[in-house]
Amino acid sequence: MSSLSPLPAATGAATAAFLRPSLLPPKKSASQLSAYKSRKPYSPHFARISCKTSSSDKEPNNNDQTGPTTRRDILIGMGSLYGAASSLSDPTALANPLQPPDLSKCHPAIKGDAGDTADCCPPFSDQIEFKLPSPKEPMRIRPAAHLVDKAYIDKYEKAISLMKALPDDDPRSFKNQANVHCAYCNGAYDQVGITPSVALQIHFSWIFFPFHRYYLYFFERILGKLIDDPTFALPFWNWDSPDGMQIPAIFADPASPLYDAIRAPDHLPGGSSPLVDLDWSRSAASLTPEAQWQSNRDVMHTQMVSGAKKRTLFFGTPLKAGDLADGNGQGTLERTPHGNLHIWVGDLTREYKEDMGNLYSAGRDPLFYCHHGNVDRMWDLWKTLGPRRTDFTDPDWLDAAFLFYDENCKLVRCKIRDSLDNEKKLKTDYEPVRIQWRHSKRVPKTKSATTTTKKKRELTDLSKFPLVLNKAISVAVPRPRKNRSKAEKEEEEEVVVVKGIEIDRSQVIKFDVALNDDDDGAPAGPRDTEFAGSFVNVPHRQKPGASKFKTALTLGITDLLEDLGADGDDTVVVTLVPKVGEPVIGGLKIDYLAD
Ligand SMILES: [Cu+2]
């Protein structure tokens, strides 16, 4: 197996010199392997919840302050659910935040033709409202996974082992925690009368970041409680730095509870292409570590800085109760590198690309929580990168709510408004590490040494849409405004919108978008100024017929057009390059985005 083979000669030495020394922990005996690895079929709804295995069950819990909810509270909660539904027909309704799913209506997320099922429904119990941790609680400082020491690794492994050893009727068990992602993201909560349910839209909308922040928050507190350490903090995978540019070694020891056997073997440390490619889908041979880092650095700059100047570009588009699923879109970071890395870690030889490569199984890999640690860190960082980079103030975002089990097995209803301040409110922060992607070093292809010809691309007429994107196409798209002033550019970001993207969500889909890219052989990539970004779909494993989905891709291009010297042009040539899959594209337009 390639995971055991030495690094290829071309990259091995350079990799060793470029990356930090291996932090592979010592091998463990087979007896230390978790029982979780032999997964049993998941059982349906549990009749009762167990929460007795912690050594510190008597610890006070902030969420206990309200006490368990009464039947009346539950009915009120359900009333708001139905209120949301009824407001669909009330055009005067102003507030319409997404409500958490009704757990009593959870059903198996997947029922395949072959009779295969995946029941990832959580145990069902009364809800309480979320309370912020006490200001007196110690901070939890999340470390970079490639920098942790042996004492930390021991603690983390012990906590994960204890979580994996919890029984199936304990909602804090690793299996149940992994199922949180499956249930929310794969259609286990399709609710009659609510279209779409919050379930289907954790991805592809503005609730992506807060949902995953709460997910990590509770997962981390459960681990901390299991080892009686109120300072325990999850590590983050620092994939945005040259030193963190491979799967952290602590996850790669087959004898560790942090290991998951279902990953792409080539991408493990020691595999044939272990360097993280934030622009994954490249089928060519691995880049040198230096070239890979330069590509990754430019991806990060586009996704965090130049392409994410407006809130909806970074977070994704609004989704309110009653919105139709079609038409919503992911934010920059959710697509790339979040989505790319899910697929990059998953085993692509498997039908469903488990574990990380499919949203139903991603939570089964301990690396998932480390990956999302860095995604969450990016939310904090984005707010420091320039003016107007703030959270939404729309009550429909602030009051959107989710359900999670806490460290005391209480089912907690959490609103986005309580999740906005990691440090001051949630008592969580990230170990400071050097940020090396703030500035772009991209150059236009026409100016780069690799360009030998300057050949115009053959153009497809806008009237030809919708069309199946099965080969690269270029379209001249009119720009309603040109040569805008600096103030106008700050007020509104120029965007290219790829409309009516029809995909099968059960499949890996990726296509790239470039502007004014000459036809000189290789299409523009992340290192070229012409490259605007990518569409990425991480597979959802869903019931047959439930996977057809229509969405849009919106990319900020104000800086890009300036850098290309194309700000005065009447049209821009948009090139779409399919990388994986053949989505249907509804159309293209240039627009201006204020928020
Ligand atoms: Cu994810």
From TrEMBL:
Binding site for Cu cation A: H181, H203, H212
Keyword set includes Oxidoreductase: yes
Cross-link 2'-(S-cysteinyl)-histidine (Cys-His) mapped to chain: C185-H203
Region named Disordered: 49-71
Chain residues that bind Cu cation B: H338, H342, H372
Key words, A-Z: Copper, Disulfide bond, Metal-binding, Oxidoreductase, Thioether bond
Pfam families xref list: PPO1_DWL, PPO1_KFDV, Tyrosinase
Domain Tyrosinase copper-binding, chain residue ranges per copy: 203-220, 365-376
Cofactor binding note from Swiss-Prot or TrEMBL: Binds 2 copper ions per subunit.
Swiss-Prot/TrEMBL cofactor(s): Cu(2+)
A GO BP entry: pigment biosynthetic process
Disulfide bonds listed in the record: C106-C121, C120-C182
Gene Ontology MF terms: catechol oxidase activity; metal ion binding
Family classification: Belongs to the tyrosinase family.
Descriptive protein name: Tyrosinase copper-binding domain-containing protein
